[in-house]
Amino acid sequence: MGEALYEEIVGPERMDRPCRVYAPVGSHEDLLPYLVRRLLENGANTSFVNRIVDDTQPIDEIIADPAARLARLPIKPHPKIPLPRDLYGAARQNSRGLDLNHPPVLADLRGGLAAALRRPWTAAPIIGGVEQPGAGEPVLDPSDRRRQVGSVVAARPEELDRALGRALRAASSWDRKPAGERAAILERAADLFEIIWPS
Q: Which of 39, 68, 110, 147 can bridge 141 by disulfide, Cβ–Cβ 3.0-4.6 Å?
């Protein structure tokens, strides 16, 4: 995935920054289509990975601002091509997602993750809107097992039985709701997740 770029970043004689090697892992059925797509993309004449090792390509052209290049194009994309948010038309809105190529978005994400690490997180079973008591077990950061990020109270067998009983009793009421009403509830829940997530 671009050894030349990697070599410019790692090592004391370069930027001396630690850099992970990107190595997708999975079954043959999952990996083969992925690797073929990467092969086609990286082998294309317009590929950054391809152009960076092409000595005939002027460096100014390789690092040119893509937005400025787009502005100079004589033909622009069709105005009826929807924005990502409107990708599904009137059926439903697409999720916002995060533009990980945009530095301010990355800065906000970094700040949010740092704030989350400072907060003592707790989790416990909730049945009928009531959090169940119990002794919490520590939860460790998977990227640094020395750091505890919170605690969790495991559900006991009798609590599972109660929760499943309530779900079973509520199922008939949910089944009687018209499909449109159920869809509206689920879409409202999705909207609330997007409102809550950034905070």
A: 147
Strand order in 144-152's β-sheet?
Answer: 121-123, 144-152, 137-141
Element (H, E) at 122: strand 121-123
Backbone angles phi, psi at 130, to 5 degrees: -115, 125
Find the helix or strand (DSSP H, E) in which 144 lies.
strand 144-152
Cα–Cα dist 112/197, whole Å: 10
Question: Which segment of 40-49, 73-82, 164-173 scores lowest on mean pLDDT?
Answer: 40-49
CB 113 within 8 A of CB 120: no
* Helix/strand/coil for 82: coil
The model scores a pTM over 0.70 = no
What's at 192, amino acid-wise? L
The count of C-alpha atoms lying within 13 angstroms of the C-alpha of 105, restricted to the half-sphere facing its C-beta, is 7
CA 177, 189, 140 angle in degrees (round to 5)? 130
CA trace torsion 46, 47, 49, 52 (10° rounding): 20
Q: How far apart are CA 65 and CA 47, in angstroms?
A: 15
CB under 8 Å, gap of 24 or more: what pairs does 72-78 form? none
- In DSSP terms, 148 is beta-bridged to 140
Give the integer Cα–Cα distance in Å for 50 and 105.
Answer: 28
Q: Are the CB atoms for 76 and 171 separated by under 8 Å?
A: no
